[in-house]
Amino acid sequence: ADARLERMQPLQWPQRDALCGELGAGDAGRRVRLCGWVALRRSHAGLTFLTLRDSSGMVQVTTLPEYPEVYAVVNKLRVESVVSVEGVVRLRPTESINADMSTGAIEVAADCVSVLNSVTRSLPFPITTADTVKEKFPEEVRLRFRVLDLRRPQMQSNLRLRHKVIKHIRRYLEDRHDFVEIETPILSKSTPEGARDYLVPSRVQPGTCFALPQSPQLFKQMLMASGFEKYFQIARCFRDEDLRADRQPEFTQLDMEIAFTSMEDMLNLNEELMIHIFQEVGDIKLPKCFPRLTYTEAMNRYGTDRPDLRFDWELKDASDVFLGSSFKVFADTLENGGVIKALCVPGGAKVFSNTDLKKGTVYAEASKAGAKGLPFLKVMDNGELEGVGPLVSSLKPEKKEHMLEILDAKAGDLILFALGEQSTANQVLGRLRLFIAHKLEVIDTVSLSYQELPSLYCQHILGILMRHQ
């Protein structure tokens, strides 16, 4: 009975009194008790060193020769084992200071190490600061071992950043603009939306189902009618649609509504909110006024309502160039009320072969967007044009000069054409614009400073879309 009673006692975890990442030179001489994960173990000159990690950061733990029992425990540890360490903080020798660690000036000389949870086999992937895990290991492996994946510094940083953003959204809307945060129902009635609903069968009413909300649209309209003039929530939404880079079955969005307001007021509020978040979370100063494009402008210039402005390729209307053209495909298109749009790819003539453009990767991408063909021209070093034969021969000298001027095309550039209805031509070239930009690696995703990041509003569509690349 006593043994059973002893087993029923609450588990007594060692109570830590310090965090790894918060120790510094001012703590020298202080005795501490730490808990965390073994990020690294190495031996040198008869000593064993641990890099101990917790949610605050990392610190080096050193074994002492006068504690052989500690050395025996530490020497058997595998990376990612969970331990409790007791010891004294001391300054490192000058030559041993690690400038890459916030705690690099000190170490903890351990006189007691307890194993709380040991790793008994090799890990499926390393828990490393280098962002190579995502590249080398399939997503299925990372998801199967999600606990380990979430220990990676990048994942920790992502989730903590998300938390900070949401925290500052709440503070801004509540403290500065008197918004009320209200949770709306998750189980609700199915209503027509942009995608299919996820359905949850009702046990109480057999044969009926609840629908998971694609957005809180109806509920927030009810709140406005109920007298809650300023509402927001960090809303969970569910949409049964095909996966894409920017589509998931469930996602979180900032949802808000204001009564007695205008589109201009909402645009200004969102601008101020984004400026506040970037300033508070990332110490990044955004411009006070975001550029604005109408939906029509965005589609005509970039082929999408969420244009990537990190590179400045624009779609151009070349219909005037080909009025009265002897190239039958273009002439028929214009006679039937269609348009001829063009995209100039700087340096593209030297990168893409005729095969790529006639039946290869570029042509395949255009076909996915609805193109029935992909007319193209290459501006050669001598200024002559090459490409689709009948198209080249149809261009008289004055028309050729007019076209090159419109597109600002130079030697070595590639000119792609899309024809038909305006929407189709925009969609084809908009898709090719992104595809080729990624292919040529012209989008600088590394060195571009946040101050230069393009922000814009795309307005005059159903709702208001703001895109921050």
User: Mind summarizing the main beta sheet?
Assistant: 5 strands, mixed, barrel
The H-level CATH homologous superfamily of the largest domain, spelled out, is GAD-like domain
- Biggest sheet, spatial arrangement of strands: 1-2-3-5-4
Total number of domains: 3
Shape: extended
Q: If you average the pLDDT, what whole number results?
A: 89
Helix content, binned percent? 25-40%
Question: Based on DSSP secondary structure assignment, what is the total number of beta strands?
Answer: 18
- This entry's quaternary arrangement is single chain
Classify the secondary structure makeup into a structural class.
alpha+beta
**How many H/I helices?**
15
Which residues sit in consecutive blocks of at least 5 with pLDDT less than 50? Answer: 447-451, 461-469
**What's the CATH topology label of the largest domain?**
Gyrase A, domain 2
Radius of gyration: 31 Å
- Indicate the CATH architecture of the largest domain: 2-Layer Sandwich
| DSSP strand content | 15-25%
Distance between the termini: 65 Å
**Level-1 CATH class name of the largest domain:** Alpha Beta
